[in-house]
Design goal:
271 residues; alpha/beta; six-stranded mixed sheet; four-stranded antiparallel sheet; 11 helices; 10 strands; globular; binds adenosine-5'-diphosphate; binds magnesium ion
């Protein structure tokens, strides 16, 4: 089923330069899509258009077949949520409990049900012992977990993570990335991760490479990584395992040893 459908989407901040240009994209239900591309390629703009924080100049967005417009935006917000880069900017509650409650209050969920949902989802993200804590008592990773709990409690089918781990330490990053994978595999959410981390992007079902407001390439991680020209055009760090594979493939002596090259490819995949 088509979960997200984007048709001929354009958006400009200054009515001069287009941050998103005539973009078409379809995302199937239950997929995990990684969006990569250098700074300024339009990834965050696309994310904000998808959750209705920005209004397109042209084109349409359908979520679950619902056209994004003023009339449908409330319904759409129930279905799609976003976690941003900076955990401090999105913590809106006085305490963890209030923060998770925020979205539910907006959806006018009755109090007893809200209490139940807060308990249930703070448990899922491992934050139930922190319900009465204030933001300054939490690490960045813990704040991101709270943001995820809030989104889970709202039972949104689609979750966007816009560089949601880029301000976290390695431990917090692993924590949240593992969790994102679980959201997709165990909770069957459709996931969009915007990331600079190609190792992580590689685990997704598909990768979208953005460039100057357009989808430059869309395909499975295997196809994209095989086509290293694409990766070189976007200035992202190519994973080490893949660099070794590339070097072996280019080397006239080494590349005759098909088994070695294949083993390196396998290795770079499993890394
Ligand atoms: P990415 O997330 O891929 O780094 P963005 O979507 O943030 O890219 O930016 C796309 C383009 O839009 C860039 O040229 C950027 O400078 C511009 N842009 C982003 N946010 C704003 C803003 N709030 N006001 C004006 N221009 C912006
Ligand atoms: Mg961005």
């Amino acid at each position: 089923m088509e979960k997200i459908k984007i048709e001929n989407l354009s958006f400009s901040y200054d009515k001069k330069n287009e941050a998103i240009k005539n973009l078409d994209l379809t995302i199937e239900s239950g997929k995990w899509i990684a969006v990569v591309g250098h700074n300024g390629s339009g990834k965050s703009t696309l994310a904000k258009l998808l959750v209705g924080l920005l209004v397109p100049d042209k084109g349409s967005i359908y979520i679950d077949g619902l056209l994004m417009n003023e009339e449908n935006i409330r319904e759409i917000r129930k279905r799609i949520g976003i976690v941003f880069q900076n955990p401090d900017n999105q913590f809106v509650g006085v305490t963890v409990k209030h923060d998770i409650a925020f979205g539910l209050e907006n959806q006018q969920v009755p109090q007893p049900e809200m209490v139940k949902l807060i308990e249930e989802y703070s448990e899922v993200v491992g934050m139930s012992a922190y319900l009465n804590k204030e933001p300054h008592q939490l690490s960045g990773g813990q704040k991101q977990r709270v943001a995820i709990a809030g989104a889970l409690a709202m039972n949104q089918d689609i979750m966007i993570f816009d560089e949601a781990t880029s301000m976290l330490d390695p431990e917090g990053t692993k924590d949240i990335t593992d969790f994102i994978i679980r959201l997709n595999k165990d909770f069957n959410k459709t996931i969009l991760t915007i990331t600079h981390d190609l190792e992580f992007a590689r685990k997704a079902d598909e990768i979208i490479v953005m460039n100057e407001g357009e989808v430059m390439f869309l395909g499975t991680p295997d196809i994209i990584f095989e086509n290293s020209k694409i990766l070189k055009e976007i200035d992202l760090d190519i994973p080490f395992g893949l660099q070794v594979y590339e070097a072996a493939k280019e080397d006239e002596t080494l590349n005759k040893q098909k088994e070695l090259v294949e083993a390196l490819w396998e290795y770079s995949l499993n890394k």
